[in-house]
Specification:
Blueprint lengths: L18 H23 L9 E12 L16 E11 L13 E7 L15 E6 L9 H14 L4 H20 L5 H5 L13 E2 L4 E3 L2 E9 L2 H4 L14 H10 L4 E9 L22 E9 L7 H9 L17 H21 L10
Antiparallel strand pairs: 1-2, 1-9, 2-3, 3-4, 5-7, 6-7, 7-8, 8-9
Helix pairs in contact: 1-2, 1-8
């Protein structure tokens, strides 16, 4: 049996003295990416996960009868909430889909009651995830170094990026075949060019979960989705192949995903401050707390794309105090996410809204 879940206290975090300087560096580097892409395209976009492949509208149903350790925060009260899901790729510029990068899933849950995080507008709860269980850097300072490299290559030599991605995919597949996984190669363009509808997504960083500490995951369970798991999309000569594929698939299928929670049970073996450490599921299993259902729809409906992709932001610091982001990577995401949204608002002349479901 797994150990009892760790109780949350402020002591689970270890805040370094130089984190403010790192955050300043992140803001400056994001500015480089934002400004370059905006000047080239005439339109400001997100500094990461810029390109969306589908915008879905659905329903989150929180399970009834959850045990006390799982009935926390948003998930303490059974019921339904409208949700928006944004599927994306993690580059900071708009690239053809032949450059294969990790997939992202941003989830916005509407009409969530409860004490808010500082400066969290509206009544929504955001979750931001990727299709891998670990982060590419152990701390914000190392992540800043990677981001500076990304900034230098943003919106440059597109053909070279496509060719490099092809090579890196081959290297990554060879390593995977002998049991070696490389998040770094994936982040540079060597990720499999998978269908985002079949992927399992992870928060990779930990969060407060009411009385406890947890990571989150969203996993496909509908047969129509699990049939797509691992399916690769041929993007040759099709710059928006992923978007086109998702649009074709979602027109005919009903998608169901489980929202799962992984409670921390040992702070040494499931650390808060190092997101490169995967929490072993045998010791800290994922447990279902809700389902997300998306009926057949146009995943690139113009009005929804405008409302969600252009006029909303997704940020881990938008939500309840009961789901406070934890660890240095999460602390470093607060100011830059706001900074990016403010740049978009200012450049495009379009306010960023937090929606309501009613």
């Amino acid at each position: 049996m797994p150990a009892a879940p760790v109780r949350y206290s402020p002591d689970v975090e270890k805040i370094a003295a130089d984190e403010g300087k790192t955050i300043e560096g992140l803001n400056e580097t994001f500015d480089t990416i934002l400004d370059r892409v905006a000047k080239d395209s005439g339109h400001a976009v997100r500094s990461v996960h810029t390109k969306a492949h589908g915008i879905l509208e659905g329903t989150l149903r929180i399970d009834a009868g959850l045990p006390p350790e799982l009935a926390q925060g948003l998930f303490a009260t059974p019921g339904e909430h409208k949700v928006y899901m944004r599927m994306s790729t993690n580059a900071g510029d708009i690239l053809p889909d032949a450059v294969s990068l990790p997939r992202g899933l941003a989830l916005k849950v509407l009409d969530v009651a409860g004490e808010r995080l500082p400066d969290a507008e509206g009544t929504t709860q955001d979750f931001v995830m990727v299709n891998g269980p670990v982060f590419q850097a152990p701390n914000a300072e190392k992540f800043l170094g990677s981001l500076k490299l990304l900034a230098k290559t943003t919106d440059r030599i597109e053909g070279v990026k496509v060719a490099a991605s092809t090579v890196l995919r081959g290297v990554n597949k060879a390593l995977t075949a002998i049991g070696i996984e490389s998040p770094t190669l994936g982040s540079l363009g060597g990720a499999p060019n998978v269908d985002p509808l079949g992927e399992t997504y992870y928060s990779v960083t930990p969060f407060r979960y009411g009385d406890h500490v947890a990571k989150f995951s969203v996993a496909p369970v509908a047969p129509a989705l699990t049939a797509l798991t691992g399916t690769e999309i041929d993007a040759s000569g099709r710059p928006d192949a992923i978007r086109e594929t998702v649009r074709s698939e979602m027109a005919a299928i009903e998608g169901v995903w489980e929202f799962r929670v992984q409670l921390c049970r040992d702070l040494e073996r499931q650390p808060v401050e190092d997101p490169t450490v995967e929490w072993n599921e045998d010791e800290a299993p994922f447990q279902r707390v809700a389902t997300i259902t998306v009926r057949p729809q146009d995943s690139w409906d113009a009005a929804r794309v405008d409302a969600v992709d252009e006029r909303m932001r997704f940020a881990v610091w938008t939500g309840l105090a009961a789901h406070r982001p934890l660890g240095n990577i999460n602390r470093a995401r607060n100011a830059p996410y706001r900074h990016s949204a403010e740049f978009r608002r200012r450049y495009n002349g379009c306010p960023i809204h937090e929606p309501v479901g009613r």
